[in-house]
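Researcher: I'd like a structural prediction for the single chain below. Treat it as a standalone chain; there are no partners to consider.
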Amino acid sequence: MAVGVFSDRDIAALKNYKYSSVDKSVLSRYFLNPYWWNQLVKIFPLWFAPNLITLSGLALVGINIMMLLYYSPDLVEPCPAWVYYGFSIGLFMYQSLDAIDGKQARRTGTSGPLGELFDHGCDALNTTLAGLLTASALNLHQSWWLVISILSALTNFYLSTWEEYHTGTLYLGYCSGPVEGILLVCVVFAVTGFYGPGLWDTHLSALLPKAASFLPQIVQDTRLNEVFLGMGASILVFNVVGSASNVRALCAREKKSFGVALAGLLPFVAFCSGVTLWLAISPSILHTHLIPFILMVGCLFGHTVGRMITAHVTDRPFPYKDTPATIVFALGILSSFVFRNWETSDGATSGPLIGHPFPKDLARRAQAGLHALFGHVDRVDDAAFVEGVVVHILLAVCVFMYLRFALRIINDYCEVFDCYCLRIKHKKVDATKKTK
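Model: Treating it as a single chain, here is the predicted structure.
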């Protein structure tokens, strides 16, 4: 019987779903798993729900974000050293708790698709949040470098989810984001805590003067944070090739169209294009309101990959369309054109990008409406301020939309399978006791 967002076919697929993963990481297989994760999970009692472990890890990263917003809301002023150490500890514990939630599920007999849905949802949000923390530690400020670093991290996550959708298996390579990537970022946080974020603006020529003298000038002028981003880009290329190869191999074995599978990357290309176009039209967002903008993008991304992983566990067709994200980007880009035609108190404008009268007329009407509502307040004539208000409103809308999406899936799943998300409803029965 269909329940909420799940059809009869969805429920049948959920009941037959089996999680599959391959982890080739040397660090996790030979060090973290046997000597840390297997010991850490024993701390948690058997009544502690696996999803609550996952949520606890995300909460630690959330606390780090609040500390960042308190001490450096504009990403200009450095945070106290202990804050960066807190970033390192928080992200490391997120990785650890994220690694043991599956172990706890097997200990308590509560393994199932809900755990994967919940885990992927938290991971998607953490990708954006950890990206902001990393940008702060690397002293990237509100800039295109920050945007590039965030989009690179989201690309990595999207590719991994796209690969899992088509292959049915989550692949973690010899150098993966969830293991080596997070540990490297934790080291960056610790180094920043010791030396300060200004360290990452150091040029290679100043750090290694003798060695750098043999290199081209462009390399000598490269800063350490740019080197770090270059390393991330190299890992991204490696993962792109690996994911594409795995999907292509599966398509060849099952005689499916690799081109159709590749089409699943087009929604993310459109996603990144929307982000880039919006920021290119609106420099005020890029340099003044980038943090709420990135948080909004993170919510939209969470919704996009959430629909993909839901389609994976329910065996639905690939979700090529994401209507909420399309609407938000369309409204944002339209508002950008409007604010480019916003008249200041002296009658000047920031310069229209197109000669069509529609944006200018819409800007005039919107500005007149705001004056009628709030009177002749100077802030109404400040396009950057009003655009910031729009970004914060859209952020609130995206948070509501994502929570509604996630809660509907969780509640309907729990109703179908008679379970709780953050509590264990039915305790695991010991087989030895059952036979007595």
